[in-house]
Amino acid sequence: MSNIVELRDVHKVYDMGEVRVHALRGINLTIATGEAIAIMGASGSGKSTLLNILGCLDTPTSGVFWLDGERVDQMNEAQLAYCRRTKLGFVFQNFNLLRSGTSLENVELPMVYMGVPRRERDKRARAALAIVGLVDRMEHMPWQLSGGQQQRVALARALANRPPILLADEPTGNLDSKTSEEVLELLARLHRDEKLSLIVVTHDPDIAAYLHRIVILYDGRVVYDKPGPVAGGPPIPPIKSLGATLEEEPRSEAAPATGGPT
Amino acid sequence: MNWALFIESFHIAFREMSRHRTRSFLTMFGVIIGVGAIISVVSISQGAKKKIQGQIANLGSNMIIGVPGSTSASGVKAGTGSAVTLTIEDTQAIERECSAVSHCAPVARIICQAVSELGNWPAPVTGATCRYTAIRAWNVESGRELEPGDDDTAAKVCLIGKTTSEQLFGDMDPVGQRIRLKGTLIEIVGLLETKGQNPLGEDQDDTVVVPLNTFFRHLAGGDRPQAFVASAVDENQIDLAITQIKGLLRQRHRLGESEPDDFIIKSIEEYAEMAESTSNVMTALLVSIAAISLLVGGIGIMNIMLVTVMERTREIGIRMAVGATQRMILSQFIIESATLAGVGGILGVLMGFVGSIAISRLTGWPAIFSVPLIGGPFGFAVAIGLLFGLLPARRASSLKPVESLRHD
Lengths: 262, 408
Hints:
Chain A has helices at residues 47-54, 77-87, 103-114, 118-131, 147-159, 177-193, 205-208, 239-242; strands at 3-16, 19-32, 36-40, 62-67, 70-71, 88-91, 165-169, 197-202, 213-218, 221-227.
């Protein structure tokens, strides 16, 4: 089985005038097609930066990044956008649905940029919404839906262009525990049934426990990479124990905890 | 070309417009006013022009007007018509010798008090030979035309216009009646048909026409016509006729090579062009003011589009995250801005119609519409939407997806 993601010595430096922030300090990571992997780490560990690079929203300062057989690190803006719409489905903590559109229109959105004609879009969006169990919520606006329903619309949207990779950023961060469980089970089912490679970025060990491989970042480096408990691996170590001198830095990367429907 | 996106962009544009109705309407207002004003001004001015052209054609067929030039004694110019170089013989020679001229009639004018049995009225009296009515394309409604014999004998007969007739005789048929002009009893032999106003707004129907010799002998004295009117054989020979007349008159007046003309000859078309060029200047002025309103409307659109881009930063981030390129975002916002301007343009066209028809009712000038008149300002409005949408759209497309997604 080939690798869907391959990162070699990836660095990311943010040049903020006086200060240069070294967010990633040489990440080496290979993800096989069809894997389900959790990327964990505390605030400031670089996991959001890594997520942005994996999601083709940002490019590394140096290093090599292969995604589904294509080299991404040298791509221009339009090529990155092409990768995002063909290879990746995004799920965000705060759902990021368009508030002016119905569930159906939100799911159709990635297909609009693919140039899929309206009728075909409609058909495929309905199918995607059926997969996530929202057949009866197609014409609802985001604010008419619960948090869990909104996240399922977002999931259907992520599936719309049938990408090989699903990228989830704290997908249950804004949900209560029962709804979180539903969404995670849905993610697990999609991974199994739709043969998706699943990358979940989280700081929550309960979520990571659903995934087959656990990668933990600390200070811009991979410090832990083992199978998860569900795949017969060891229990996930507490993140803080991995960094000897971990300080609580101000959270600057995650979305606000009270994000709510947008 | 991504047609799905192209169509979707219009869909988004209309949805955003209906979500912010008041704001969109206020934004469009400058465009509505601009387009409406251009259409009203141009349609009315074209109507007015057409009306003036009609009036000018009404003055006479292929008509040429000649007046004596100014005299210049010791360097003091006495003004057009002050020279008395033009003679009846000149006009006879023009009619006889200029091949491009069909008729030529000398004319002289005076205003004198006309008295009938029923009333009196200061009537403009024209003395002219019998060709005059033919040149002016002016028919007699009842009675008869003037005849060559009337002129030869200085017969005490006249034609009368509708207005003068009404003033002097009310509803009575004036033919066969007599009026007294400067103590001379003159018989009305014909009633002229209605001619209406000339381009200067003068009532042409307020007139009395007498044979030229009658005019000189009984009303004004002298023997020199104040002007002449001539008609070219057809409209293509007007210029030739003017050239021939000028040549003939220079020869008859024995003017040397270096001497200026002692007469002025113009075709009625030249007068028409003069009137037209004045109204063109006026129209151009008004249209440019309206165009400025359109430009200002464009700036209003740009302003509101900048606000929209700010407000929808998160939306733009989402669109980029699901695969929109910068170009796609750029085109979406340009389409939104052009749609806003286009809808404003359509409303402006409607306002233009309403405005033109209202002005037309008020002034009595016809409003003339044409495809370029509607399409031009509408196209201009859309072009302004495209132009002023560029900056906001560039701003939207240059947003960084990572940062936009974090925006709230």
